[in-house]
Amino acid sequence: MSSKAENINSESPLKYFHKLSNHQRHSDSAEIFNGDVEFALVIKEAPICAHLNLRGDGADKSFTDGIAKVLGIALPTEPGTYQSCQQHSLFWLGPDEWLLVSQGNAAEIEVSLRQVLAGHIAIVDISGGQTMINLRGTDMAVQTVLKKSSVYDFAGWPGASGNAGRCAQTTFAKASAVVSNKSDGSFDLIIRRSFADYIARWLLDAGEEFGCRIEG
Amino acid sequence: MSQINRLPTGACTDSSTIINFTFNGKQLQGVAGDTLASALLANGVNVVGRSFKYSRPRGIVGHGAEEPNAIMQIGSGAATVPNLKATQVELYEGLEAASVNGWPSVNFDLMSITGWFGRLMPPGFYYKTFMYPAKLWMTYEHFIRKAAGLGSAPVQEDPDSYDKLNQHCDLLVVGAGPAGLVAAREAARAGARVIIADEQSEFGGSLLASTQRIEGQAATAWVAELVAGLNAFSNVQTLPRSTVFGYYDHNFLGILERRTDHLGISAKLGVRQRLHRVRAKQVILATGAFERPLVFAHNDIPGVMQASSVSTYVNRYGVAPGNRLVLFTTNDNAYQTAIDWHRAGRTLVAVIDSRGAPEGELVTAAKKLGIDVMAGCGVIEAQGGKRVKRALVARLNHDGSQIVGAVQKLDCDLIACSGGWSPAIHLSSHTGAKPVWDEQIVGFKPGESTQQERSVGACGGTYALSACLAEAVLAGAEAAKLAGCGDGNAHFPVSEVEEYQEQPQQALFLVPHTKSTSRAPSQFVDMQLDVSASGIELAVREGFESVEHIKRYTAMGFGTDQGKLGNINGMAILANALGQSIPETGTTIFRPSYTPTTFGAIAGRDIGALFDPERYTPVHRWHEEQGAEFEDVGQWKRSWYFPRSGESMDDAVNRECLAVRNSLGILDASTLGKIDIQGPDAAEFVTRMYSNSYLKLAPGKCRYGVMLKEDGMIFDDGVCACLADNHYLMFTTTGGAAGVLAWLELWQQTEWPDLKVYFTSVTDHWSTATISGPNARKALAKVCDDIDLSSDGFQFMDWRDGTVAGVKARVFRISFTGELSYEVNVPAQYGRPIWEALMAAGEEFDITPYGTESMHVLRAEKGFIIVGQDTDGSMTPADMNMDWVVGKNKSFSFVGKRSLERSDSVRENRKQLVGLKTIEGAQVLTEGAQVVFDAQQKIPMSMQGHVTSSYFSSNLGHSIALAVVKGGHSRMGQVVYCPMADGRIIAAEIVDSVFYDAKGERQHV
How far apart are CA B318 and CA A198, in angstroms? Predict the structure, then answer.
């Protein structure tokens, strides 16, 4: 029998997290958020995409140039920043470590990168192990929930603009996350798959005072 | 009882809004803006509690955090809160308050009448009396606590929610009195992120009770304007009802915010209390000062109060806590209380001033009102039972140390005292700054800052309002500049203040009596813990000299008020008894918490399901749907066993184990730690970390390895696969994953930075389904046609990339059961679909999902160890009979190698891993049971080892166990004994640790 006969669907980490809110809805119009007084905080998991961990020497021009050539965006070398374009986002995680989140195919990106990068590098596909969730809502709700969740000073960040902003890999509740700000005022969290249910549960609890729901 | 002491107006109360509450079961009324204390005083309640040791009746003394007596149990049932100070509890409709001590009631206290109890408890009572026998201490303590009465904790689950907020700011201002408010405004204007916190319900601090005028308006109006201005800044966060309770290293401070307590205990309005964990670039302490009490005989009778507290009740709350006042002071400042009392229209009997010739402006102002001033005198004793009836007044010598005239009796029901002020240096003390004695203010000031902080206003010893404001404006601007905001220049002008010039105060810490201190009626220093002047002197006579020892011997300052009132008096009395100065004697060190902090706030939201993260595998929901029982492994929820309807755990495990050996089982092994290792030196690095070598491991091959710590003891184990040249995948134990990754990074970064290698955790990326059993190959072949699965094409300890059920997979032929096994790894988003595809493929072989329990049994049948269960950090590979895993001919050493040759590592009689086979095959040993060689010996027996793993093996039909036994490898065939907790002694034979398929033929098919 052919293995191609199978029809397999991929499953995101929060696929089975069915609780949408701790909050009692007062009306049926809970779908909208903007202007919606009921839910000041909305959590939404992004569709599955490619996540690749990149290691290399950020001071090595052939490394930075190679990445820029393949991805079409500059490798962020300023600590705690990210660069993005429609297809890719590159997050600075450390002096020699970056996270690439992409709409493309992880295996193909890895092959393209390996073709242009030489020397001591590492590229690791971790697409299955992570997911990205977006936190949007009122500034008060988003900032307060971030303050409840992490010791990092997100409120001290300048706002993101266009395709660049700040990011930090830090503690999040009793797990960890890569937190980044977006130009629309919302925040993205990149979290580990095995902790996804815990973090979803945590966010619903931490955001309860503002009205918090998960958007399917 | 009506509100007999209620005045027509109070600056912060609204007498048109009546609030009902109960005190010790009695219905009472207060008004909006009251604290529980002000409402009790308004109702003429004299006795609010009984004292700790002597059970003396006690009344309200203060008006804030310093209150030693009015300790209350608030509310009932699940939400009851013990040990709140009535002075800090805002009144709300339906509030239930009860005294925490006094039995059967505060007004009729049996402990007091019998009287013996206190007399039996001199200082050092615990040490003297209950030293022996030590085991009875628990009994004594129970009795003492019951008698002392420290409130009762709720026994039901807390219905409220709490949380924690991590805050960052340029400037944290502690205290929103005049100094704090002005400093905050200045820094806010400079653009600093400011948090200003105050423990009271309203900002304003001392000004809330002040009659002073600022910039031509009432102090409260000036405050309101300032607060409105602060709130208009978007960079200012104002936190009322928020106590900064601790100041920790690196400008980290804790704030307890009480958000809904004042609304009533059953109010379900979000978060009840919030713990702010603040990291501040700069801190301004503007915590004010506490008025010092005057220590005279029976100064604890209800009706003896602090002068500033009397003013606060009159001015702020509109309550006059008595009818006939005697004011006793050592300074000008307290004359304001006389003026306030006079204005309230109640009788002022006299002002007793210890100074010979008080002539300050306030004194003159008071005299102008016709107030009688007795200069050079002191109140030497209060008389009365449950309320002051009279004050005994006598003339004192110039320094207040002796009585020089006849004793006069003044009838009164209220004695207000002022012994000057003590700066609230608690938070400054938390930083480690050593308090400094200042003769001028007769008090300890904050010591030199050890952190980025400064004290302004009264807490820094600056008492005049105008001086406070001037200091605060500068401090605000300066702190902002240091935090990177503004130019450091003050912007706002210093407000004009109507102020009296004051004359120097007198230092008077203990008022003399006609009898000696030891014979006079008790002169109380610490009312909450019943420490008297004579107790301190007794401690000195018994040989104590250090203030820290005296504190512990007498318990002075040990109460929930931390001795905020009388501590300085106590130290001065101690200094006098030791014949030395106060600076020589020093002060005790204040520590967090400033006031008690609830456990709820400390726990925050990390409770229930959020107490610790639950990590799920991609197949977790399938296990749940199958009714699996789960086991916690680290933070992971692993499926433990899969009971079918009516099955016990033993039934399920026996069935699962048989299925694996006879046909096919499937295990979710996704939780195993997985680390991707890349770099030109990957092979060398891996070889240095494991005890065996990986230099010659070819791509496509795997090897089992053991990792040791430097001490040569087994720390983790697992399989490591060579994926390509310079590319490895390391498996770790489930619980050890994070530790192993940190271990690799540690060695690479600190010891061998020259080795080029990168590590990346891929634990979460891969979902692993292990199919194990004689039919594993047939089942896998049904969903995989691009890997040569033949026994030669894909050998034991090989891995292959391929496609399983249409998904790119990496298959490892490794085995933890001893059966033919394939570990099918796919990216986690395909974890469950592939699991289900394998279930379908295995259906004809009756594929059986098995959990960690069966996995444990199956591996124990094979004698495979589990690190952390069969080892405990004190086992070498040789102890585990695993010498074969140690590569002795590696060119470079490996971590732990040297320690394997230590004399202790190679000595005879180390505990060694063996199998135990019970003589009665049905008997299963208890894990952890001790192994002895002679069952007849007396207790304590000579313990020769212990059982590390023990199960019933359904495959073998008898129990099996692994144990570590001293010299075990040379004791094969010996019978040993395991005494059980239930008294049975089970005999077992020492056998080889491999019980099943000793030649390993089943995994090599």
Answer: 52
Q: Do A195 and B167 touch (CB under 8 A)?
A: no
- pLDDT tens digits, B755-811: 999 999 999 999 999 999 999 999 999 999 999 999 999 999 999 999 999 999 999
Between CA B205 and CA B212, with CA B208 as vertex, the angle to 5 degrees is 110
Residue A79 belongs to a domain: yes
Name which of B235, B829, B832, B834 to mutate to probe chain A: the one with the most chain A Cβ atoms within 10 A of its Cβ.
Answer: B829
> At A216, is the pLDDT very low, low, confident or very high (cuts 50, 70, 90)?
confident
Distances from the Cα of B662 to the Cαs of B559, B639, B776, in angstroms?
A: 70, 21, 11
Same domain? For A139 and A192 the reply is yes
Q: Which domain holds residue A97?
A: 50-127
Report H helices in B628-775: 649-662, 682-689, 737-746
What integer is the mean pLDDT of B328-332?
97
pTM comes to 0.92
Query: For residue B104, is the peptide bond before it cis, meaning its omega torsion is within 30 degrees of 0?
Result: yes
The pLDDT value given to residue A211:
86
- Same domain, yes or no, for A144 and A203? yes
Tell me the pLDDT tens digit for each residue of B578-595.
999 999 998 888 889 999
Say whether A8 and B165 touch across the interface (CB within 8 A): no
Is the pLDDT reported for residue B145 higher than 90?
no
Same domain membership, residue A121 and residue A144: no
Residue B689 tokens, joined: 């970390």
Q: Do A129 and B783 lie within an 8 Å CB cutoff?
A: no
Taking contacts as CB-CB distances below 8 angstroms, the residues of chain A near B833 are: 8-11
Percentage of chain B with pLDDT > 90? 86
Pairwise CA distance, residues A192 & B763, whole Å: 10
Amino acid B268: pLDDT? 59
- Work out the number of other CB atoms within 10 angstroms of the CB of residue B755: 15
Is the interface score ipTM higher than 0.90? yes
Tens digits of residue pLDDT in B710-734: 999 999 999 999 999 999 999 999 9
Instruction: Mark whether A136 and A160 lie in a shared domain.
Output: yes
Alpha-carbon distance of A170 to A152, in angstroms, equals: 7
| Contacts (Cβ under 8 Å, ≥6 apart) of B975 | B919, B987, B988, B989, B990
All domains of chain B in start order, with CATH: 14-133+140-148 (3.10.20.440), 161-286+423-482 (3.50.50.60), 292-420+505-514 (3.50.50.60), 517-595 (1.10.10), 673-761 (3.30.70.1400)
Which residues contact residue B201 at a Cβ distance below 8 angstroms, ignoring those fewer than 6 apart? B90, B240, B241, B262
Look at residue A34 and tell me if it is in a domain: yes
Contact B883, B877 (CB under 8 A): yes
Decide which of A83, A105, A127 is a domain's last residue. Answer: A127
Please give the backbone phi and psi of residue B553, each rounded to the nearest 5 degrees, phi first.
-75, -40
* Closest-approach residue (CA) in chain A for B830: A10
Which residue in the set B621, B764, B786 is minimally distant from A129, CB to CB?
A: B764
Residue A146 · residue A56 · CB < 8 Å: no
Which chain B residues are closer than 8 Å to A11 by Cβ?
A: 618, 829-833
- Poorest-pLDDT segment among A23-37, B383-397, B489-503, B896-910: A23-37
* Residues of chain B contacting A155 with CB distance shorter than 8 Å: 168, 193
Q: Are B691 and B887 in contact (CB under 8 A)?
A: yes
Q: How would DSSP label each residue in A13-41?
A: TTTT----BSSPPSSS-TT--TT-SS-SE
On chain A, the residues whose CB falls within 8 A of the CB of B613 are 173-175, 195, 198
% of chain B with per-residue pLDDT over 70: 95
Q: Which two tokens stand for residue B565?
A: 């009132």
Nearest to A120 among B636, B756, B765 (CB): B756
CA distance B321 to A47: 68
